[in-house]
Amino acid sequence: MFQLLSSWSRKQKAIVFLAIDLVLVPLALLFSCFVQFMPTMPLATFVSLFPILPYLLVLVAAVSSLMGLPSVQLRMYERTAAGRTAVLAILAGLTSAGLVWLAGIRLPYGTHVMFAVSYFIMILATRLVLFHIVSWLYLRAQPRRRVLIYGAGATGTQLAQALAAHETIRPVAFVDDNMSLQGQTLIGLPVYTPVRTAELLEKYNIDRVLLAMPSQSQPKQARIVTRLQKLGVEVQALPSFAQLIGEEELVDKLTPVVPSHFLGREAHAVELNEVCSSYAQRTVLVSGAGGSIGSELCRQILACRPKKLVLYELSELALYTIYQELGQLTEAMDIELVPVLGSVTDPRQVRQVLSDHQVQVVLHAAAYKHVPLVEVNPLSGLTNNVLGTQILAREAAKAEVERFLLVSSDKAVRPTNIMGASKRFAELVVQDLAARQGKTIFSIVRFGNVLGSSGSVVPLFQEQVSRGGPVTVTDPRVKRYFMTVREAVQLVLRAGADASGGEVFVLDMGPAVPIMQLARQVIQSAGYTVRDELTPEGDIEIQIIGLRPGEKIEEELSLNNTMIRTDHPKILRVDEQSLSELEMARVMRELRHALAGGNAAAARGIVQNWIEGYVDWEIAQQKLPS
Questions:
Q1: Residue 625, pLDDT score
Q2: Contact 385, 368 (CB under 8 A)
Q3: Are 444 and 365 in contact (CB under 8 A)?
């Protein structure tokens, strides 16, 4: 039946509606004769009206067509055509009165009023019945998506009302945390407890859950969504009415917070004017130019007006991004910007780049730095961080560059992971070359974590908060040293300019920050509360997941805990024993052999034998107090 109706053209449907309206004319007249007091029998009176009926039908058909009533869609009839139908009924009543008078038929005037009223009501009632019949047929022919509404408050009930006549969506039930609503029936739909959600999905064959709780905090909504998605159902969230009309922003509650907010101290500031003479009008190469440290080095080096800045980067995307950014900054400057896509482990390319561009200063920030990743990829980490440093530093010495600065990490001190060990190896490589008294001034700057850098803890915490938690902390005892990327780079450039050769500089980063405290700060800075035993109704939970392979409870800054002050109060120097030239040659030969053979066990053994203070992570775990 529905297919037949669907096959009809708009003109065919209009003809049917017009025919129905014409059939209702004699029915309305007959009804008027029966309800109005007549001098004769009602049926006899109706028969006496037959002579005027054709004229009345012609007039009704003409007026209805002129008004376009037969062409109005059923679902739009009540809103757009009710007034025109009233006009048609009134004209039909007046016409019937005139025709009766002309025909000399004696009829009470109230009959014509009753005819107009009944005709108007019959047309509207017929359209309404037809609309429900067609809707029923359509719903039977077209399957509707069955949805469960999570939230039976004002937003949820308004949503259910809006969807009641929807062509493709059918709400079947509510779930709500409010116990006073559970068990009730709202808008014809039962309200259940969320505990029964899994049962309801199966019982009602639900395709989607609509989350209608815009007043709930974003983390709580995110937790609900995560729980529902685990049940294998699609979930969509509904904004509040205030959001829809523009009273509230359609954005997450979480807003970016500047990294220094979590530093717990004032960020150090260094006047670059004091050190720019070491970089001005020189050709500077920054390896790892697309990374967090490397890109900031490039930005601040530009302030010193170098002659040329060579961006050396392994990642094509990272190189493209920083090159585009710096290209805009150098439009008004007389600075040549050179993007170089390549690896520091390629000696031929390194040699060619240093020679072709007559590089005078090398700032080596390229490294694999993520502890868990390097721990499970030790050969790649050692190749990039150790051999890459040796190749770049050795070729820099051969090219007689003025300065070579290695950006190192506090994880290089008594490491329990391959990443830290590789950075200590890189330090030993640079110290070895510095001891040979060449023309190049080699130096090392060691510091801790950079707030806001890629893969660092603050962006991770913020991303977890945006998902509704939990925020994961490896161990409640963990502490780390932190700096902002800006202050770290400023101090690195100052240390590099002050170096006379062979120094290992350590930046003063203030006291170590407990990661547990940092997690709380990130949650609270986003406007949420921590959910724990004291505040079980809080927004975000902090979950302890255990130390990852290679992680330490606390980092150190030097092997002998002896710090020597320099001319700058925030830059310290440490004197640490390095390997002899023969020892360095031997260890690098062994390491190259292990890496070439793909022997991870041998590479770990070399780290164990030659890196002072190195302790395998599993052994270090056994020594930790419980």
A1: 54
A2: yes
A3: no
Range with top average pLDDT, 99-103, 433-437, 494-498, 507-511: 494-498
Q: Is the peptide bond prior to 470 cis by the omega test (within 30 degrees of 0)?
A: yes
Beta bridge partners of 38: none
Contacts of 609 (CB under 8 A, 6+ apart): none
CA 512 → CA 107, 179, 526, 565, distances in Å? Answer: 104, 47, 23, 19
- CA-nearest of 608, 377, 610 to 618 is 608
b (16+ CB within 10 A) / e for 299-331: bbbbebebbbbbbbbbeeebbeebbeebeeeee
The encoded tokens of residue 314 equal 């392994």
More confident residue, 249 or 155: 155
pTM score > 0.85 for this model?
no
Rg (CA), the chain: 41
Q: Rounded to an integer, what is the distance from CA 538 to the centroid of its chain? A: 22
552 close to 620: Cβ distance less than 8 angstroms: yes
pLDDT at 339 over 90: yes
What distance, in Å, lies between the first and last C-alpha atoms of the chain?
A: 76
| Beta bridge partner(s), residue 445 | 407, 505
Which whole number is the average pLDDT over 106-117? 78
**163 with 155: CB under 8 angstroms?**
no
Mean pLDDT to the nearest integer, 371-388: 94
CA 97 from centre of chain: 72
pLDDT of residue 443: 94
Please give the Cα distance from 311 to 73 (Å, whole number). Answer: 67
Number of Cβ within 10 Å of residue 593's Cβ equals 13
Residue that the structure tokens 């509360």 belong to: 529
* Side chain identity at residue 243, one-letter code: Q
